[in-house]
């Protein structure tokens, strides 16, 4: 089987634990205002690569990946769930740690889809889940998509027992809001398998990419977020997390 691949990064250090081969798949239904890879949006384009061709790329630097592994990101890798599943199953046969970097936007409760998803989850060590916005209306404003299926995806894979690594980008005027950040923390507290939380400051590095593609950058008037503000945002999320845990423990008594 072949997949549509945008690009491959041979020494990724921020896409899961350790040094990793990062496979950027092509195609994404999200239209995040701060997306810095709009060239990954269009599906069924890019270079077609087989599972074996990708694993050959992995083998070239295999020694560097002994404490890392392979990550599929995008775009949205779940748009090519059959291909990613085959790739991850081959990785598991070779004891390669697998990480899925996804928004979970494709999730639905169709039995045939769940069957496919379960097969993929069986071959997945870690899911890096990007929760763009906790508020439904604001999520549409930020991404042009609803967030209900994303939150359902988080709950589903959590119950399935797959480790979760939550990512959240703090954007001035959009997600830099104490109420929303606190509510995000409350939601995360309901998940049992969260192993890490990455709170990332919005940056403007996507401007150059948009210019090169002849596209207007939607957030051209929004300044990047400082590291200090990102730290404050993380504290607010954790406050919501801790308070919700206390509430849940009280309800168990």
Indicate the mean pLDDT: 96
Topology order in helix (H) and strand (E) letters: EEEHEHEHEHHEHEHH
Number of helices: 8
How is the biggest beta sheet arranged? 8 strands, mixed
Roughly how many Å is the radius of gyration? 18 Å
Strand content: 15-25%
> From the helix content, strand content and strand pairing, which structural class follows?
alpha/beta
The count of strands amounts to 8
Fraction of residues in helices? Answer: 25-40%
Low-confidence segments, ≥5 residues, pLDDT <50?
none
| Distance between the ends | 52 Å
Shape call: globular
Strand order of the largest sheet: 3-1-2-4-5-6-7-8
Description:
Helix 2 links the parallel strand 4 and strand 5. The chain has 253 residues and is an alpha/beta fold. The N and C termini lie far apart (52 Å). The chain has 8 helices and 8 strands; from the N terminus they run E-E-E-H-E-H-E-H-E-H-H-E-H-E-H-H. The model has no long low-confidence stretch (mean pLDDT 96). 39% of the residues are buried.
């Amino acid at each position: 089987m072949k997949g549509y691949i945008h690009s491959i990064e041979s020494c990724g250090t921020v896409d899961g634990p350790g040094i990793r081969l990062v496979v950027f798949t092509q195609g994404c239904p999200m239209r995040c205002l701060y997306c810095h890879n709009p060239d990954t949006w269009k599906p069924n384009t890019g270079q077609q690569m087989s599972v074996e061709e990708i694993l050959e790329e992995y083998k070239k630097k295999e020694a560097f990946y002994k404490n890392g592994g392979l990550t599929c990101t995008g775009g949205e890798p779940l748009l090519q769930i059959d291909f990613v599943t085959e790739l991850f199953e081959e990785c598991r046969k070779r004891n390669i740690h697998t990480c899925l970097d996804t928004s979970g936007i494709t999730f639905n409760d169709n039995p045939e889809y769940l069957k496919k998803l379960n097969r993929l989850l069986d071959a997945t060590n870690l899911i890096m889940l990007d929760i763009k916005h906790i508020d439904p209306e604001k999520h549409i404003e930020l991404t042009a998509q609803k967030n209900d299926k994303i939150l359902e995806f988080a709950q589903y894979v959590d119950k399935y027992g797959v480790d979760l690594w939550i990512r959240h980008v703090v954007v001035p005027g959009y997600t830099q809001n104490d109420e929303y950040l606190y509510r995000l923390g409350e939601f995360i507290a309901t998940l049992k398998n969260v192993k890490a939380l990455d709170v990332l400051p919005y940056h403007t590095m996507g401007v150059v990419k948009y210019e090169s593609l002849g596209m207007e950058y939607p957030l051209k008037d929004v300044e990047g977020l400082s590291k200090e503000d990102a730290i404050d945002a993380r504290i607010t999320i954790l406050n919501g997390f801790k308070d919700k845990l206390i509430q849940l423990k009280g309800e168990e008594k």
